[in-house]
Structure formats: structure tokens, C-alpha cells
């Protein structure tokens, strides 16, 4: 039971889901954040119930979706990590789902793409927990890894993106989103490496050009004089106006 001065996290969450469904994502994020604070406050009073735990998991899933949609990739990853860190038997759960691929089908009707488009405003509530063997459904676990993979891809961390895609493939070998994301990752990695090589080539050319210019100036400057003229004289206007090559 919540004290009179507290806000009911469930009511806040439901209101936020409605806001999200209407496209009012900032208001939804504010309400989800308030609901999470209330849950944490309630837990700190020494009453960590299953309902409270499940609510926090669901809220963090929603917040991760918000951050993904807002392209706040580090925050999305952090929310996903917190969820996984607070699942005590996460390794056992992963192994169970990996070894029982067909044990859970149709547990989550709505899915969201790697771009963060939610097809059902209540999807997180429906997919967050399971009353069966483990507290998190297979589909929810897949969703967490997909969101991390998408975020790492957008941050150009291809190794971690690939690691999370591999986790999804272990849970669902034919997962369409994972396959699409993997192809996208390979293409973007090739393009990223090409751009990196081009950038380093331009930097090398710039340094070479600067060194050549300095060598030329040293060759044409008589002993006892500076590049601006005889020692003690004013710099010449030509040297003052000389353009300096910079990397674009």
C-alpha cells in the first residue's frame, strides 16, 4: 500500500502509456520517470514486492524505448544494462531459453523495430514479465538485446553491436530484426572504415604539405634572415598573407 502523499506508480504508468500512444512522448517520459522514482522510494522503505520489481522492469523498458526514439543511445544502453544487472538468474534464464527455443511462442503480440517504433502503447506492460519459470519473457530479453545492438550500431561500436546480435540469434536464430540489423551493421562498418581511411589520408597529406612548405622556406631564406626578411626587419606582406593549409 502506498502512503497518502505518494503517487501510484501504476496510475502514472498507465497515464504515460496513453500519452505515448498519442505521440506525446515527452509527457510519457516524464510520467514514466516519476513512476520509477515512486517505485524506488517504495523499495527503499523495505517493502520490495514482486509487483514493485515487475513495475520497475516495465518502466525501464519504456524508458529505454524513449531514449532510443530520441537517439539518446547511451541512456538507452544504460537502462537496458540496469534491467539485466537486476535479474539475479539472468545467465540461467538465458541458457534455459537458448536450449528451449520452441518452449515459448506467441508470448508477446506487439513488437517494435530496431528504430524504436512501438506498435502497441501497452506492449511493454504485456511483455515485461512472466508468471512462469523466469520473471522476464524470452521476447522481452530479445527486445533488450536488440535495443542495445541498435544503440551500439548508432555509436559505431560494431563489436558490441555484433555481440548483442549474437545473443539475439542464440535465443531466436531466425529473428528477422537481428538479421536485418546484422546486414546493416556490416554495410555501415565498411563505410565507416572507408571514411576513417579517407580522413587519415587527408591528415597525412596535410602534414606532408606543411613539412614541404617549411622545407622550401628554409631553402630560400638566406643565413641570418628570418622568413619575414633580415633580422630586425618588419615581416613582409607576402608572408603575412600566406595561406596555411588546414584539414577540412
Automatic annotation (TrEMBL):
<dbReference type="InterPro" id="IPR011990">
    <property type="entry name" value="TPR-like_helical_dom_sf"/>
</dbReference>
<dbReference type="InterPro" id="IPR039663">
    <property type="entry name" value="AIP/AIPL1/TTC9"/>
</dbReference>
<feature type="region of interest" description="Disordered">
    <location>
        <begin position="206"/>
        <end position="248"/>
    </location>
</feature>
<protein>
    <recommendedName>
        <fullName>Tetratricopeptide repeat protein</fullName>
    </recommendedName>
</protein>
<keyword id="KW-0677">Repeat</keyword>
<feature type="compositionally biased region" description="Basic and acidic residues">
    <location>
        <begin position="239"/>
        <end position="248"/>
    </location>
</feature>
<keyword id="KW-0802">TPR repeat</keyword>
